[in-house]
Amino acid sequence: MRQAGRYLPEYRAVRKGIGFLDMCRDVERAVTVSLQPIDLVGSEAVILFQDIFTPIPALGVDVDFAPGPVIGEPIRSAEQVGALLDPDIGESVPFVFEILRRLRAEIDPREIPLLGFAGAPFTLAAYLVEGSGSRDFSVLKRMMVRERDLLHELIERLEKLTVEYLNAQIAAGAHAVQLFDTWAGLLSPEDYREWVLPTHQRIARGVNRDQAPLILYVNNGAHVVDCMAEAGADVISLDWRVDLGAAAREFGGRVSLQGNLDPCSLAAPRDELFARVRGLAEAAAPARGHILNLGHGCLPDTPVEGVKAFTDAARALAPR
């Protein structure tokens, strides 16, 4: 959940003087910043440093960051969808898999797990159609009602890419992979069941989960947790708007849970943060498994001592 990032002075030092996309492609720097949270804040897993848009330029799409994804020519026609390339994922982003292999070599002696990730098709399509981030994604939502077949075709193309990308990460050494659907929470439960759930289910069937479990995250998804539990993922990652205890009681027998501390809570005094972490652990106790985590990524102004206190609090929990 963005554990390597702008809140760390050491990250900013490595990132200085290089653009974000170039940083993602720089194997040495990406390995360095991926490893930083292990020793600097006490994280218990290494998360691949990349962006959900890493594989998208290989489709023939012009992408820049300012600071979020900006699409040179938003995709809004059948001709544009038809013109998308069908890349060989191993050849198009070889640096991703080299970074994963390098990370495994670094962390295997310490028995630390390595996590990969990808953006979910609906969220990727939201950016590709809208052209950038948006509060309401009105262009995308108009396409949902006016050009349904076109949007379904775009999402299907992205779905194929996502499965190939996650499986390639697993082959390169990821112990687990996470699917991020940042904008699926914009949808009503009815629209979610049409546009998102079937895609998640097909991805869950297509990913090599006998080799690495799949984690599903939907931001602002408190109203679709039941759908998340139907997706077929091994773990559902919940944001801070979800009642963790209720989710554990209702769905924890089917899926493990991840989450879900509000990232702003990392600014709380150390004792209060310890209490909140204990509360999360107690709430999640009915679930078959629980990964203590934030309910979204660390914000740029997150105090480093708050992240350290969070990991200290996790380690202070008595084993279940």
Question: What would you say this structure looks like, in words?
Answer:
With 320 residues, this protein is of the alpha/beta class. It has a domain at 19-237: TIM Barrel (Alpha-Beta Barrel). 48% of the residues lie in helices and 12% in strands. It contains 15 helices and nine strands. The strands form two sheets. The protein has a seven-stranded parallel beta sheet with strand order 1-4-5-6-7-8-9. A two-stranded antiparallel ribbon has the order 2-3. Strand 7, helix 13 and strand 8 form a beta-alpha-beta unit. It is globular, with a radius of gyration of 19 Å. The model has no long low-confidence stretch (mean pLDDT 96).
Compact summary:
The chain is α/β, with parallel strands linked by helices and 320 residues long. The protein has helices spanning 9-15, 20-25, 27-40, 78-82, 89-92, 94-107, 121-130, 138-146, 148-172, 189-195, 197-206, 225-230, 244-251, 270-284, 304-316; strands spanning 46-47, 63-65, 69-71, 114-119, 176-181, 214-218, 235-237, 256-261, 290-294. It has 15 helices and nine strands.
